[in-house]
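Team,

Forwarding the record for the chain on the shared tracking sheet. I've put the sequence and predicted structure together so nobody has to dig through attachments.
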Amino acid sequence: MRNVMKYLGIVSVSLACAGPLFAMGVQHPKVSIFFDQTCAGPLFAMGVQPFAGVSVVQQNVVTVKGQVVDEKGEPVIGANVIVEGTTNGMITDLDGNFSLQCPVGSTLKASYIGYLTRTVKVSGAMNALKIVLKEDAETLEEVVVVGYGTMKKSDLTGSITSVNAEEMMKRNPVNLGQGLQGAAAGVSVIRSSGAPDGGFSIRIRGVATVNGSSDPLYVVDGVQVGTSIDFLNPNDVESIEILKDASATAIYGTRGANGVIMITTKSGSKGKAKVDFSANYSLQFNSNKIDVADADLFAKAVRESCRNGSVMTNLAFGEEYIGKLNNIDWQDEMSRTALQQNYNLSASGGTEATQANLSVGYLNNEGVVIESYFKRLTARANITHKVKDFIHVGLNLNYTHAQHHFSGNMRSYAQAIPTMDYVENGTFYSMPIVLPDGSWGHYKQESDGDINKGADNLVAAAKTRTDQISKWDRLVASAFLQLDIAKGLTFKAIGSYNYSTSGYDGYTPYNPRTFGSKDRKDSYSINQNQNSEIALESFVNYDWSNDHHRVSAMAGFSVSDTDGVWLNTSASDFPADNIRQISLTNDPSSKTTNGGRDLKTRYQSYFGRLTYSLNDRYILTATVRRDGSSNFGSGNRYGTFPSASLAWRLSEENFIKNLNLFSNLKIRAGWGQTGNAGSATSLSVPQLSSLNCMYYMMIGGSMTNGAGIAQQKEIDTNLKWETNEQTNIGLDMAFMNNELSFSVDYFIRNSKDLLIYRQIRPSTGFTSVYTNAGHIRNKGFEISAAWNKSFGDWNVGVRVNGSTLKNEAVEVGDPIFYKNNSSGGTQDGDDWDNHSITQNGYAVGSYYGWKVAGIFQNQQEIDALNAQSPTGKYQDGDTAPGDFKYIDLNGDGQITDEDRTVIGNGFPTLSYGLNLTASYKNFDFSMNMYGVAGMDIYSYSAARLTSMYGPDGGYQNVLAEYVKNAWTLENPNGKYPRITKGDHNKNHRASDAFIKKGDYLKISNIQVGYTFPKNLIKHAKMENARVFVSADNILTLSSYNKWGDPEVGSNRVLLTGFDGGRYPFPLSISFGASVQF
């Protein structure tokens, strides 16, 4: 609407506005032709010459030349520019330009329909004045996308947040998650690592499941694309709406339980075709190293360990070699300065009947860890066509191909022993990373000594595994038909096909460098997965209104079918290192193959929505959805999910208007239910199988066996939906013509009938059953504020948001334990089993472990506790001064698993974001920050970096601070336990010693840009041109930095707040340009 008004601005100027100007004889060749002689004649009859103001004193008159533009820098055609208090003025031309003679000290006033009026003081002659008009939210009503339609923002009754896509792109996001960090209250976006593909997890208003996913549903151009949005190029995004409360998400039923993110991509528009091209280049650096011991300090720590009972097997760590060891900083060796390149090209345009937008994008991110990279190619087409005045059709195609290689964990690099030097048979070997003959250096090869039998030259391992590539492809295709049946009545049908495939193709060469791998053959493996979903949604919208009432109704139906297949195969021992065919293995017995079809999932749904508004003040919205899923038995396949919400626009009441205080004042309240069907499962259907079942019989005096059939699992045939019930109360306020705005929400989210495994009596023959049991509650406050102001050529803006969250497992039955065994997680033998617990009265995935009372200072303390123990051992027989002293919580006189308890959780008290923007003439500036407060991290990294004990043998490197501040006889006040290789006291075990304060503030992005004046670029046939420089991941303020980055995250809800280390977050310096033709 705004663009139509702007480009037809000349004809839309009313005679009421033009009259006073032409009455003074103001002439403009591009305007006057639109007014006929009959109307204009009397006005021009006065014969006043151009720019002759009645009240102008000639000796003080100066010429003011300038341009009126909107916030995007586009010219505003037909804007009214007048000297305030006079009739001296004119209308801007096709380029938004004007020229007036004005008295010094007078005030210029610029106005246009749909924009706020701007005033500028005339201090002297001006030749390049730029007046920026901002949209008037009162007259140019903002429209937001909701489920199966759109609504005026003033009519919203639920909790919905709009994200400015243009501001988001100033962060140079690799994916959508990076662009949403800190952008919306109640939306937690945590990067799981700094890997080149930019992994992230999003949580909207907490977590409300134990076994399932807490990721939100993404809806792109009306199509539900699932819980992954990695395929979408952020540059293709036009707008983003985040639906947070159940009154907004219930229309999506089972898939809206964790919130919904609505994305509209860029589309074509009528008029002249436009071509946009942008190119960004970023230099990336590893800026957050962990300060670990160098070779000499590490050797000193080994010698201290030997004082505590260890035996040195690598004599290179002895005092004889002090100052002689070849120091290797593995963090430096494994990182590099990396280049990221990002290119985007799009073309859009159309006629009255057909509009199209085509785009292609390419991203190549090398990654700061050597041999890592991520490459992505995206292509998109969005085409709409008006067949008849009442028939519209459209097609959306989105294809993405991506591949990445190698990841990395900076904590594991920091822990690698900082020298490969060793002594063998009395000879000292100084080992560089690459030997003079070009072969790779290596650690001492030993099975049970100072060096772990699997310890490898990290650079060699990375450089020789370049043939290990993961790839994925995604195709999302949709087509729609829209019929404008009658006034206010439309029918729309959307059919979609969502296909994805992912695979891994990896060759692991023979590795002679370690004791553990020198007898292991080379290997090759292939993994492949394919998934597809076909869906059809049809719905009818009806809108009716009169002077007092407005009604909007929608009803629809949808069906979907999801299927998939997978295949894994591998073998080892190949004739040559370039063989990539499983059948050519030298050892056929090494071949393994597995695969099959995924369980098919089908959904069938009916849904509807009704919105009623009385006098634009009192608004009611009600929705209902009935979902059916094949995940459940015939008796429980369908669930009904209703919602209702109310809003009262107090700012439209006379008693509020008379205050002349509020631009907007609205109270909202809503309630609703959504569902969660969990993952595809057959656990609601009784089943028999011959798997792992064998019968033994005596026949003819001898034992024989045969295949049998039996029940495999205990089944709950009444399995049904999880139910999420949410209540929301909100308040929206705006002041000073919407320059200052606030929004506050309070919510309670209850999740019941959780789909979990519960323990059952052993007499059943089984240990657990998958059933509905449990109740999780999330509640909290959300607040957001925005301020925008213009001062002459300056425009400034501030946006801030914050949210609190309390998560509680109200009822889950028996405690649910979990251990992170994934990459970057814990190790066997590290005494971190069951470090995550979900238990009644505590947060989901709470921290579980022992409590530490301090450090034993002498043997007498230990002996006294041993004497009171019924076993004669309070902790361990080898506990010694300098070890942690654990608290006997159950009072049985000894430290056992029974003394473990809940020691914290990973949900911060406050999450917040801050965005600053400013512009001056053609320059623009933006700054983004986000952070958390009241955050505790369960730091496995801290446990590993303060213990030389290697769970699978050998030493590992530690913090330099640990070596310098560990307990010794000479340093009894050391804050860390004694240095030991065996660690029989298990000082490294999961305990509150490793609960670390995780508060942080990140300055995530600063960008400065410059838009070239149109008169400079028009000779190059350009419509627009902008350059920028930016910095990302600039600074992290946190006391946690010595252990790694405090921004810890995982896609597993049971690992919230757990830190096992990750790919480093790089500091990036970017340069870019965008042009439009």
